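Annex B. Sample input.
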Amino acid sequence: MATKVLLLLACLAASSIAQVHATATEAAALGTESTKSALQQLSAKSKLQTQVMVLGSLHLSNIKQQLDSCSLSSILEPLSRYQPTAIAVESLRPQDIATMINGSGEYQTVLDHFVGQRFLALAIKEQQELRLSAQKALESLEPLLDETSLEPVQRARLIKLAAAAYHKEIALLHWHYLDKTAASPTISTELQHYLEQLAASNNEKNTLGNNLAMALKLKRIYPIDDHLDKDLYRPIEARLLESYNQSPHAAALAKSDYINKPQRLKTEALETGNWLPLFSWLNSQEYQRAVIDQEWNLFIDKDLTQDAALSRVALWEIRNLNMSSHIMRVVAANPGGRVLVIVGASHKVFLEQYLANMLGVKLIQPQQYFAAPKTSKGQSPQHLFSYKEQR
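Annex B, continued. Sample output.
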């Protein structure tokens, strides 16, 4: 009898512990939801909200056919109606470039690929000529960017300072603005040639970001990319690569419509000049869901080495979290404004998930502007916005 009583008491105790655990789990979930709801309510009270539009794009730099503002007007015109007050692109920040130069040797590959040894060498030459460190050049750049208007010689100095500060995007934007006949002699021939080549690039940072910034007469473009996770990347990649190369699911993904449809739409855009179908697809809910269900589900729920796959996911989230932080710096510099973020399409769903939780931020979808408005006569007003005239 005593044994039965003890067993009964043990069962009751176990049941009570399970109930307590379940209650604690439910309470934690309710607490999280309550906190989230409180944050949403607080955000809704904000009298000033900053709009953020994340535009997912293909990387256009591998297109051989020359792209310009006219050939991309089908996408630039709707973006111009959003009237962004700040534009951010997928480039490394000057501060992070300096960190990488002085940091882990693992960052060297990142600098080679995403910054380029040619630009780094030009930056050092400008630092030496100006007798300024990269940080001092960056600090000296700010007062010039705050000027209402610049004389050609001032703009030329701004370009040299931007190069010395590793701020490629501002150097390029103001090279577009520069009266070359009046001020280019003050800029080295090497830097001029580099900027001319950069200005002819099909990269979306130039063809979309710079063209739109010039049309709207913006003074700066904000770099928001991040690769500081790459000091951890190599050993994780080495552990993951064998199972990835042998994975039937990875092979199927490479042949899937998720991968191939954007390429087909890009080919059609080059033939027709209409880029809206491509950008509408990349920014659609269906495509963004596929980023999760097809691309990243491969690392979570398929046949890859699990620990390495989860580490790879963590690195991807580190990058996107850091990018979100950089975007919030843009928001902080433009309260109540309209921020356009141009990034590779697979970043969009992650960035929006994080930014949706930020106080005072209102996410705007590109599709709201992709449907062309009608004039009083029912005609599309694309002719009202001429990029060539505004250069």
